[in-house]
UniProtKB/TrEMBL annotation:
This is GntR family transcriptional regulator. The lineage of its organism: Bacteria, Bacillati, Actinomycetota, Actinomycetes, Micrococcales. Pfam families: FCD (PF07729), GntR (PF00392). The keyword Transcription regulation applies. Gene3D superfamilies: GntR ligand-binding domain-like, Winged helix-like DNA-binding domain superfamily/Winged helix DNA-binding domain. Residues 17-84 form the HTH gntR-type domain. PROSITE patterns: HTH_GNTR (PS50949). Keywords: DNA-binding, Transcription, Transcription regulation. The keyword Cell division does not apply. InterPro entries: GntR_C, TF_FadR/GntR_C, Tscrpt_reg_HTH_GntR, WH-like_DNA-bd_sf, WH_DNA-bd_sf.
Length: 231
């Protein structure tokens, strides 16, 4: 579908859920990945056209992202992308690393042989998806891996807070960042060893390192993309 603009078109819209949520995810990902830079005007009709939806859920998405701080609203100009830097992204991932590390530490006391086997199977499938360069499967399996660890921790309030912070992590975009897939596999392996040893200190450190690593890759990518657009 042509939009008459340079807004990216999603590769697939199968299994669509709430349209305003879909529009929010789409736009949030464009902002955090640097595909649209700070100060860019965002009009609801362009979002609606790109996603083949009506303007109502597109407007709802813009309002939601304004509340989250991804967009600003200026009288007579409308919505624009808020100022964001790689340092901001690093700060968010630093906070996320502390919470995710706590969940991993708690998971060590609850993970049984079946849980560990399940995580190993997810990791094996993730490794196979990376080998065939299947970005969609890599992203989904990485999500499944982290969700499994978080559920094992049995700390829903901490997990919910991580969910808010993870809005700065464009899930469907990560696999295209150079070095991310290899880093994910290595970092997950270290975490699996800590979980198998039921070592909370090692698990906390492995998960925190993994989250910080991912944040640094995203922040560096964002800085490079935004800086290059200024030239």
């Amino acid at each position: 579908m042509k939009t008459g603009t340079d807004w990216p078109i999603p590769a697939s819209r199968a299994g669509r859920g709430q349209l305003s949520d879909e529009a929010s995810d789409y736009l949030r990902e464009l902002v955090v990945s640097g595909q649209i830079r700070p100060g860019t005007r965002v009009r609801p009709e362009l979002i609606a056209e790109a996603l083949d939806i009506s303007s109502t859920p597109a407007r709802e998405a813009l309002q939601a992202l304004r509340v989250e701080g991804f967009l600003r609203y200026e009288p007579r100009r409308g919505f624009t992308v808020a100022h964001l830097t790689g340092a901001d992204i690093r700060d968010v991932f630093t906070a996320q690393s502390l919470l995710a590390g706590e969940l991993a530490a708690r998971a060590t006391s609850r993970a049984n042989a079946t849980d560990l086997d399940n995580l190993e199977k997810i990791q094996d499938r993730l490794r196979a998806a990376a080998a065939r360069d299947d970005a969609k499967d890599v992203e989904q399996l990485n999500h499944d891996f982290h969700r499994t660890v978080n559920l094992l921790a049995a700390a829903p309030k901490i997990a919910a807070t991580i969910g808010l912070l993870s809005k700065y992590a464009p899930r469907r975009f990560y696999a295209s960042i150079s070095g991310w897939q290899a880093a994910t596999l290595e970092d997950h392996d270290a975490l699996l060893r800590a979980l198998a040893a039921h070592d909370p200190t090692a698990a906390r450190a492995a998960m925190a390192t993994h989250i910080l690593h991912a944040g640094e890759l995203l922040a560096a990518h964002y800085d490079e993309r935004v800086d290059s657009s200024d030239q």
